[in-house]
Amino acid sequence: MNTAAAFADFRTYPLISALSGVQALADRILVTWADTRISPFHHQWLRDNCPCPQCVYTVTREQVLEIVDVAEDLTTANARVDAEGCLCVDWQDGHQSRFDPGWLRAHAYDDESRAERRAGKPKSRLWKSDLPLPVFDYQALMNDNDALLQWLLAVRDIGLTQVRGVPTEPGSLKLIAQRISFIRESNFGVLFNVQSKADADSNAYTAFNLPLHSDLPTRELQPGLQFLHCLVNDADGGESIFVDGFAIAQALREEDPESFKALCEIPVEFRNKDRHSDYRCLAPIIALDAVGHVSEIRMANFLRGPFDASVDEMPRLYRAYRRFIAMTREARFRVMTRLNPGEMWCFDNRRTLHARNAFDPATGARHFQGCYVDRDELLSRILVLQR
Ligand SMILES: [Zn+2]
């Protein structure tokens, strides 16, 4: 905080440009910044965001005021820049508000400020088969918050990382996942053991080849991050394969826009059932965010229910589905590596699809442990580390 003004946040907002002038209009205040940008702030917006202790509880820094408790036509009696460079507003009903210029600039909603914020948002860096694999060291991640932040940024932006030097005792995975935050438990446990089992409750627990997929597409919210830690890998085969689902979706959008549209629009059901549970989720394979960027891929052929689309849509869905799967098999998108004991994958499960080649249990043991952490935990941890 560079002024004594309060604000409803725990992070700081550097002073990008000082306030140089204030002009009151009928329904808004026009603020001029030292770098000549002009930002309008409606009276409603300013009153709504008043950070005073009556409007924001100082302990939680959460808002107490509800804007409906203030007159809709409230106007200002006076607005000025004070000696500390804050915007001070005296309201007609006697309330006073004081805004830190760093905070105000960070939340200004003139076109230029909004465009700047949009441009500054983290962007996914799409990759193909030539990805230089981002590799991190376990000890550094456990002991050094700067190293941890670099790893988490790579997970967020690239969606596939490898960690080396992880102890090979079962359960070691838990410690590094908890460096981020809470582990997401599922019906497969807090940690799941990827081993071939006679009574397998998933194709994952066999020696079969597993095609490219996301985990738990059967849930309304697929786990954000997946960790896969290799304890033992003596069996022939079993290489890990990854593709950037966002890169495939992007290529599909350019090369076959009709199929892209079908996968964004037509929901598909994924099912995971055993003797004790029955999870089902109906959702499109490609999800877009509010501005039309691909935000999620949902895919596991072995967990898919029969398509339920209209008679007219069925051929369109099959065409699109075949095209997508065919693209996941194209060499241009695939990264293939064998994971050795003490190495761990951490990837964005809602973006990076993973696969495993078949392995031969007769040639040796193979034991991986895995767990999930949600994307919210990753993003929150990054913001706190950046404070
Ligand atoms: Zn107030």
Automatic annotation (TrEMBL):
UniProt domain TauD/TfdA-like: residue ranges: 135-372
A single GO molecular function term of this UniProt record: gamma-butyrobetaine dioxygenase activity
Enzyme class: oxidoreductase
Alphabetized CDD domains for the sequence: CAS_like (cd00250)
EC numbers for this chain: 1.14.11.1
Pfam families named in the record: GBBH-like_N, TauD
InterPro entries per UniProt: AlphaKG_dependent_hydroxylases (IPR050411), GBBH-like (IPR012775), GBBH-like_N (IPR010376), GBBH-like_N_sf (IPR038492), TauD-like_sf (IPR042098), TauD/TfdA-like (IPR003819)
Domain Gamma-butyrobetaine hydroxylase-like N-terminal, first and last residues per copy: 28-104
Name this polypeptide is given: Gamma-butyrobetaine dioxygenase
Taxonomic lineage: Bacteria, Pseudomonadati, Pseudomonadota, Gammaproteobacteria, Pseudomonadales
